[in-house]
Design a protein that fits this description.
With 250 residues, this protein is an alpha/beta fold. It contains nine helices and eleven strands. The strands form two sheets. An eight-stranded mixed β-sheet has the order 3-4-6-7-8-9-10-11. The chain has a three-stranded antiparallel β-sheet with strand order 2-1-5. Strand 7, helix 4 and strand 8 form a beta-alpha-beta unit. The protein is globular and about 45 Å long. Homodimer.
Length: 250
């Protein structure tokens, strides 16, 4: 399986879930590499912003920023190797994240089966941009979908970020919740459009401010919380940013 590489090894780490429905829950994160979208504010751009690609990222404005060497930032690891690291960390809550994990759902299916054969108590949630429909076999085994539909603020065209069949699948799936990354009040018009079009239950909606620093998040909290109160959405912060800062592997 292709995972993100951190400090010379696959990015598998034990932390807390910092976002969404299970915020604060101790969890093991398995970060896959590769993505079919290219969000300009993405904080895991080392999973897709390869040298020679035309994609734009806001960090390009920072001194010294360079696109990533694909060979250096992908770690190949077997299902057995991943499972060994997970078991050693001793937590049963697993977050499959990325990149876009569903690009490798066949391998992830094998990983879920392998770990559940070791211990049926493993629980799996997956972070996805909602553009890929899971297979029926995968859907049976996953416990929760954290769907994050990308808005225009991501820099992706509507054609590649909004896949109607996939959105309809997730909106009707009892295991799916929706997390919208909101940057400005103007973004809410698009959030409302998607909720109406795909009949997303308000109780499944989480609004999260875009930002990779505590200061940036705090600037957007008040008005975003008011939106949640008015429309009966959930507010979710980025707890890991407040605790650890914008760091990898925590």
């Amino acid at each position: 399986m292709k995972l993100a590489r951190l400090n010379g090894k696959a990015e598998i780490f034990y932390s807390i879930q910092g976002e969404g429905k299970n915020i604060g829950r101790p969890s093991i994160f398995i970060r896959t590499s590769l993505c079919n979208l290219h969000c300009s504010w993405c904080d895991t751009d080392y999973t897709w912003n390869w040298k020679g690609t035309p994609f734009h990222h806001q960090n390009e404005a920072l001194p010294g920023y360079q696109k990533f060497d694909k060979a250096e930032y992908i770690a190949e690891l077997s299902i057995e190797g991943i499972a060994c690291e997970v078991v050693a960390l001793g937590c049963k809550n697993i977050v499959l994240t990325g990149g876009e994990p569903l690009l490798q759902q066949t391998d992830l299916l094998d990983l879920i089966r392998h770990l559940r054969n070791i211990d049926p108590g493993y629980w799996f949630e997956i972070e996805t941009n909602g553009t890929i429909i899971p297979s029926a076999k995968f859907d049976v085994l996953i416990d929760q979908y954290n769907v994050s539909p990308k808005l225009a603020n991501s820099g992706n065209t509507q054609r590649i970020r909004e896949k109607e069949d996939a959105y309809n699948f997730f909106s009707s799936n009892a295991k799916a919740v929706f997390k919208f990354v909101v940057n400005t009040p103007e973004d809410m018009e698009e959030v409302f459009r998607l909720i109406r079009k795909y009949e997303i239950n308000h109780n499944k909606v989480y609004l999260m401010p875009e930002g990779t620093s505590a200061e940036t998040l705090k600037q957007k909290q008040q008005w975003l919380i008011e939106q949640c109160k008015e429309h009966h959405f959930h507010y979710t912060d980025r707890l890991h940013i407040h605790i650890y800062g914008n760091k990898r592997g925590v």
